[in-house]
Amino acid sequence: MNPTQAMKHLLPLVLLLLATISAEPSSARNTISAPTQAAAGSASATEQTREALEKFYTEYARWMSASFDEEIAEPASPLDDATRRKVEKAREESGGDPIIRAQDFNKRSLPTITVEHVEGEWYAVAYLDTYENRCVIIPFRALLRKGQLVITDVTLP
Description:
Elements: H1 3-22, H2 27-31, H3 45-65, H4 81-94, E1 114-119, E2 122-129, E3 134-145, E4 148-154
Antiparallel strand pairs: 1-2, 2-3, 3-4
């Protein structure tokens, strides 16, 4: 089994373990109830949010990995105002991008992006950083508002 296949098998377990251990306690987080089940036959609100977050993250990483001669539009930002300010401040202070926890993104990492639901509105985005050969895990708080993804928190490294 090659390293990428091994990571795909172990990633959900690692995500759950790390998210449980490293998640900061938050009174807002503790009061959030689990999303309710959507209409019968359709994906749950949790699964719809997970899919929307994975779609956004993949598009964002693809945009970050594009070379200068590629014309890929930056995806619309689903960050709420408070999270946008937090991310912009972190970018200014570190020179990196807290959404990907790096300064740039390698195209070879795109197929390794996964998103797992952790608890309530918390999700863990993970990918294999092929530059440093390490797994990067970023907790996000996200929800769907009127069918649109809204990211309400991104944890900082």
